[in-house]
Amino acid sequence: MAGFETSTHGRFSGDHRGDLNPITRFILERYGEDERVFSGWIAGMYSGQAFAGSIADYTERRAAMAEPFLNFPIEAVRRWARGQLLFAEENVPKFRLSEEEAGF
Question: Which residues, listed in sequence order, are joined to residue 20 by a DSSP beta bridge?
Fold first, then answer.
């Protein structure tokens, strides 16, 4: 989507705790309920990122970053935050078990 920043850091203000980049906020306030806009925002959120290490730890970090947004005034942001926490809750135990079995 042309109107979105290209990095996750650009979507958040300051230390990533509780606010959005003003451009992202503007778009989500007006169009965040549009499924195409919401999906594009989510897809762009992590596109191009790579990590090494534990997927369980990575998933927990993503959930921790989302937690301050659970009470955000924009529903699309709250929806994203709930999804991150739910994904972590459902998958971190499985990821940890898999990593232990693999000797990671």
Answer: 12
Could you count the other beta carbons within 10 Å of the beta carbon of residue 60?
Answer: 15
Distance CA 37, CA 76 (A): 10
Measured CA to CA in angstroms, residue 9 lies from 13, 44, 92, 102 at distances of 8, 11, 24, 32
Mean pLDDT by 10 residues, the chain (104 residues): 37 59 94 95 84 92 94 96 97 96 90
54: left (phi > 0), else alpha (psi -120 to 50), else beta? beta
Q: Where are the domains of the chain?
A: 8-101
Q: Which of 75, 63, 64 is nearest to 35 (CA)?
A: 75
**Measured at the alpha carbon of residue 46, what is the angle toward residues 33 and 26, in degrees to the nearest 5?**
35
